[in-house]
Design goal:
Blueprint: E1 2-8, H1 36-73, H2 80-85, H3 90-103, H4 105-108, H5 120-147, H6 150-162, H7 164-167, H8 177-195, H9 202-222, H10 226-242, H11 248-268, H12 273-276, H13 279-293, H14 302-331, H15 337-346, H16 355-361, H17 372-379, H18 382-406, H19 411-415, H20 426-444, H21 449-464, H22 467-476, H23 482-513, E2 514-518, H24 521-533, E3 539-541, H25 544-554, E4 557-558, H26 567-576, H27 585-594, E5 599-603, H28 604-607, H29 618-625, H30 648-651, H31 657-660, E6 663-668, E7 672-677
Parallel strand pairs: 3-4, 3-5
Antiparallel strand pairs: 1-2, 5-7, 6-7
Amino acid sequence: MTTVRQRRVGKGTEAAEDQPSEETNVKPDGKIPSDHTGGKLWNILSVTVGGIVAISLGLLTSVYVATLHENDLWFSNIKEVEREISFRTECGLYYSYYKQMIQAASIQQGIVNCKQYLEPVYFYIYTLFGLQAVYVIALYVTSWLLSGTWLSGLLAACWYITNRVDTTRVEFTIPLRENWALPFFAVQIAAITYLLRTHLQPVQERLTLMAVFIATFLFSLTWQFNQFMMLIQALALFILDCLDMLPTAKVTWLYIIQISGLLLVCVLQFFNSMILGSLLISFNASVLIARTIQKNLKTGGLLNRLGKLILHVLLVLCLTLLINKFIKKILNLESDEHIFKFLKAKFGFGATRDFDANLYLCEEAFGLLPLNTFSRLSDTLLFYVYVFVLFLMAVAAVIVAFRNLSGSNQVKLMEKMEECTITLKPDAAYSLVHTVLFGCLALSTMRMKYLWTSHMCVFASFGLCSTEVWKLILKCVHLYTSQRAQVLKYSIPIITLLYISYKFWPGIMDELSELREFYDPDTVELMNWIKSNTPNTAVFAGSMQLLAGVKLCTGRTLTNHPHYEDKNLRERTKQIYQIYAKRSPEDVHGILRSFGTDYVILEDSICYERRHSRGCRLRDLLDVANGHIMDGLGENAPDLKPALYPRFCEEIKKNLPSYTTHFTRVFQNKTFHVYKLAKHK
């Protein structure tokens, strides 16, 4: 909760260069240098200037989001407990581990001792804001590599910044694992883009593979959804390899890197069983096995190739399911079953009463992407350019794929289009399929839009600054000359940049001058009371979101928290949440004491929730899971029955003897009620 401070301050057949640079020997004005030395000097100058611009934009983005965070909360002026409370829900849980680490004596004496130079909380948030610089630089470099001009990178970075609402949420959800992970994912994509260039030297290829591995490992280490994101990436590689649009050897290395990175993370996370049972490992292993079974996949005519391709896809899918089922059976894995229940219900394959799956289904972040997202993206021209480039590239990809599958017997059919010759470099082909697949993910699940919108900036800017795109357009309308292509390649992006600057610079300045202040006195009061009036060994129960803050601010022991990838913890959370269900005081007391609970915190915002509609309130989910009729007007499933007891969180406040025998209220304010549990023999 914030209040405003009352003050303001006014494919792949064309060769590409081995490094990101302007097209060889071509200046922005289309003139060719007088000699080879002049061309080299121009390229060196271009790379130098482009690099400086990339670093500068990255640092400016970092400062920009840090300033927004400071202005929104007045972070430098509020108390430590308020700073910690500002890390809402699971953000507080993640930060609590950092706090625990720096407070340990062995760490204080080691390399993390930064207190003499910077407050620990600032070291933490500045590290994350610094990663935003890495993120923007990686997007910039990816666009530069694809187009051959750093002007494309500049446009990508500007679009990322001006569409900040839809490209990042780092300034208000700082410790979220995705904010640690996405910069490394962007670095990985940049490295893959460079790897897919033609004519790389062996040393360059090895170094790039190492960069891909390191970025993949760091991405996998920092985000629980890594396996699903890389599965989509593996699907993109699989599609392009089947269509003969990527070199098979490089694709194989990328499959191996994904598996290796995940297995290393599994070891470092104390053999996290959820990783071993991931679809990514099963899919990549299946592709590699299927290749050894099926030979000569890329020979023959069109019908022959299509038949082999269909058989290959079916074989890979069957092997994936068999291997995954086998691994989960052998290791008795159930950590991710709630995700598949959620997906099954989300895409209409039957309703579910599973409590965990419904928690996801009822959250707006896991719903469909709102339509107003596209209107915001259109304001900066990003969406219009993206759709234009996507259409052209998709048409080119279909033609190239048909040509590849047709084989030598039907090449003459394609040669009739010589006036409008179409090629697609491997890196551009990968970027196309990547953006399509992640676009589908974003459309289906709003929370995943940040993976799409950031790459949308890269893809749109690449298309606008690509010689191949303008060459294709001009040839198709019989207006092509190299000079015209060069003029369009540079003039259109510059005009776009000028438009963005004119329209959005004043808004950015206003945004930076708007000052607010963090304000949540009820939560501050609760945390201070817990620290002052409960023993350090006390065990607290309550909602996942609040308990994360309790752990961070007070260091007390919790019965449950927002780490939802563990089946036992999910089941424990469901049991703890019976405090908001229609259960007897004896039942609730028995459940809480079975987990060693000393104190339970009830929140009026959950007990009397109005944020969600009927059927999606937490109490409704609990009622349905318990077989009880939901509160309020509306339909109920015919097999649901009236509960035998009133809702616990409401009835306990009446201080009836049946409740006071087990629970004693020890703290109360407008938002929270804390009860101490009786320890019956």
